[in-house]
Amino acid sequence: MADALFSVEGKVACVTGASSGLGRRAAAVLAARGAKVVGVARRSDALEDWRDGAGGTTAAVAGDVADRAGLPDLCARIAAPFGPPDILIHAAGINTREPADRVTAEGWDATLALNLSAPFFLSQHFAPAMAAKGWGRIVLFASLQSTRAFPGGIAYGASKGGISQLTRAMAQAWSGRGITCNAVGPGFFPTELTAPVFADSDLAARNAVQTCIGRNGKPEDLDGPLLFLCSEASAYVTGQVLMVDGGFTAK
């Protein structure tokens, strides 16, 4: 019973940002559990490296999800290997880390385009196919900065605050047709995006102490929450942000 409840066997999943970090982990976990996974990222060599290690039934699509003009072609290539996705995970992201007084228009626009606009427009494209089947799972990536302000994070924080509301708004729009829309909010996990944080051992230690559990995240800590949100186990959960932060936001 438990296996069936959390099963993604045979589902078609699309994971953006699959070339590295938590997106790569999510794509690998879904493939290992029997989903047909399409990994999307800009770096084709890193995508192929993911495929080599993932096993299972996978496909790699190189492209920029923030390129609005190229989105129709990208979506067609995503759907080509296995059909339109049943599960859509938006893990692609950028953090320019520009202090408020030195935020550039280019940095702002790039951050909002990838972190906030791309998840909506990609979801908008595939929502009709999910609705036609009466089943879909959309999982976005929120952040500690969805609710908290960190130094140098004004553009990133604005985008991740937007993700919280986008999650609720998409749930309101589409959940009546069988599509749940939720977000995970990771704490501090070692990834390319958080490399500057973990490069400072004192800062990493302070972040660990700030959690209730007493440590920073490990990639496998995200596996269970993702499988929950991607499976039948979360059928009555939508419009929610699940913080996977070891209790960082609880203190």
Automatic annotation (TrEMBL):
<comment type="similarity">
    <text>Belongs to the short-chain dehydrogenases/reductases (SDR) family.</text>
</comment>
<protein>
    <submittedName>
        <fullName>SDR family NAD(P)-dependent oxidoreductase</fullName>
        <ecNumber>1.1.1.-</ecNumber>
    </submittedName>
</protein>
<dbReference type="Pfam" id="PF13561">
    <property type="entry name" value="adh_short_C2"/>
</dbReference>
<dbReference type="InterPro" id="IPR002347">
    <property type="entry name" value="SDR_fam"/>
</dbReference>
<dbReference type="InterPro" id="IPR020904">
    <property type="entry name" value="Sc_DH/Rdtase_CS"/>
</dbReference>
<dbReference type="InterPro" id="IPR036291">
    <property type="entry name" value="NAD(P)-bd_dom_sf"/>
</dbReference>
<keyword id="KW-0560">Oxidoreductase</keyword>
<dbReference type="GO" id="GO:0016491">
    <property type="term" value="F:oxidoreductase activity"/>
</dbReference>
